[in-house]
Amino acid sequence: MKTGERVPTAVDLAASRDEAIASGERLSLGVAARLSRYLQVLTQAKKMGKETISSRELSDYTHVNPTQIRRDFSGFGKFGKRGVGYNVDALVSQIRKILRTSGQHNIALFGAGHLGQAIASSDIFADHGFRVVAIFDTDKRKIGQTVGPTKVRHATELRAVVEEEDIVVGVLAVPTAAAQSIADDLVEAGVKIIFNYSEALLQVPPEVTVHTSSPAVDLLYALYFYLT
Amino acid sequence: MKTGERVPTAVDLAASRDEAIASGERLSLGVAARLSRYLQVLTQAKKMGKETISSRELSDYTHVNPTQIRRDFSGFGKFGKRGVGYNVDALVSQIRKILRTSGQHNIALFGAGHLGQAIASSDIFADHGFRVVAIFDTDKRKIGQTVGPTKVRHATELRAVVEEEDIVVGVLAVPTAAAQSIADDLVEAGVKIIFNYSEALLQVPPEVTVHTSSPAVDLLYALYFYLT
DNA sequence: TAGATTGTTAATCGATTAACAATC
DNA sequence: TAGATTGTTAATCGATTAACAATC
User: In this prediction, what percent of chain A has a pLDDT beyond 70?
Assistant: First the structure.
């Protein structure tokens, strides 16, 4: 924030806040990651009928220091009520606005095996505005079957579906050996985010983001702090 | 590292290194998390027959800055060869030593549904020394069935199995509504790490660590950086 | 009012990175 | 040797936290 030689005033700060939300600078990696986690907890708290939540409670569930939680929020406005806490509903929509993920986003799922079916029937994506609009598999016996409300299709339909349904995210719930070739297809079809549940080390062009899910890594990490 | 008024010498530094590995201070959260991720990539690289890997390649797969990767390693010794890179096998065993997760660790899995079966039949835990030694479910129709090499048991056997098999980690692949009560049972049976794949916000005593897996959170986060 | 909790400051600490000599 | 890549320094930047006035 450059304001020449003046000390920044309250008005400057408010302006930079709105900018930051509207279309200003990107959030830092850490802030974006934490806001996403708060959102998960808040979504669940809302389901449980909680109307108000304190930074202390959020800290219990996220293991983020309560001061930092308040700080993360106060950078964007005064969302809380002293002595009371934050209104869950209001906070959810503020964070969604900040993360610009208020809308619906369509995802394509590969693999109709156990993992694929678990993902398709879980609330975990739906709660955050992600909708599984297509499931693909290469196994002919699975094609045409339905998983929840969605019919399993053959991977050859990928390209058409991606364009039709405006799919930005592809989720890979396939064997490690099959992952790279599907990733190549996804890239070619214009998908920009690949969520990889296999162990494959995927090679993609720089404009595509790969996120490899690694429960074992998280477990190693948790175990270290238990052992020490 | 306090060395009084002397400037630390090479001998001091080497000593503090060995300490750090042997039984010295805990790693910081960030270092432990990154080392775990390197381990995942290295394990897969090894499977693919790779003998050597550079900090640049590790960076491509982990999105961690190459300088930081070299720095993370050099804190514990000189593991690499200039102009060549790091030997994959040697690096894996060094990191395992640092993280103290060289041995086998037994885990108990709850829920023999799609997700539970996907976890039980995946290599992802096995590759890092975690073995699913028991699967529990409350559905009578599932009890007695086998998932891979493991028989599904009723949750009433939990306590005995935890003691017998020295189980430190419990994995919850159950519906959100059932998670808290199983978590309570696990805590009572002495399990110290709970890996939660449900959406439940679990309440546990402070000596127990809960890790809630949240693919949707990761996705929100990835999406933010795509949208901006 | 009394108690609780936010918003914010100020100080510290650790993470990050560019750059480059060392060396395989 | 020439090219590549490590190990390490030094400088910067952002994260973290304790503390507390403000205020619901």
Answer: 89
